[in-house]
Amino acid sequence: MFVLGVTGPSGAGKGTACGFLKELGFYHIDTDRLVPLVYPKALPALCDAFGMQIAPDGMINKAELAKAAFSSPEKTSLLNSIMHPLIMDEVQSRIRLAENEGYSRVTVDGAALHEAHAEEICDKLICILAPKEQRLDRIILRDSISKQAAGLRIEAQKEDSYYAKNTDAVLVNHSVEQLKTELFSLIKEWQL
Predict the structure, then answer these.
(1) What's the pTM?
(2) At residue 88, does pLDDT exceed 90?
(3) Which of 155, 178, 149 is nearest to 65 (CA)?
């Protein structure tokens, strides 16, 4: 099983890149989609860390959690320390599932792959970057949030250089067509 990690900041185009890789036969694991699945296991630690207002009815209120967790780099790190081990356990389960279904290549996409130590399970890592204004617009559209909320999310993330370090390739997403062309060329070069 070949595992390709796809990382980069929010709104850069990781999901778009992984959609293209699905066209090439990769099984896609989106770590963002795994988050709700691990909330029940994480609930006690999240409430201890961020207060009961994030789960007033016993269920995580994503807007309240985001407001609390993205208010400072320290709080974002605290969120990550709680969530990443649980998410990576789920990623490994999904990799086994993909293998059982006959897939030989998997993409794992997430903004926090470095922090989650995904290099331990990934054979190669690709970083997708994009200009901040494009990222801001994409986040607002994708998540239906305000410009201020999207800006807080961007500011809570690491610099582009952090995502690019220790990766096997960096692609800058200026347009969908250009990203697809460069990604397909890279996969061909790597003979995947």
Answers:
(1) 0.86
(2) yes
(3) 149
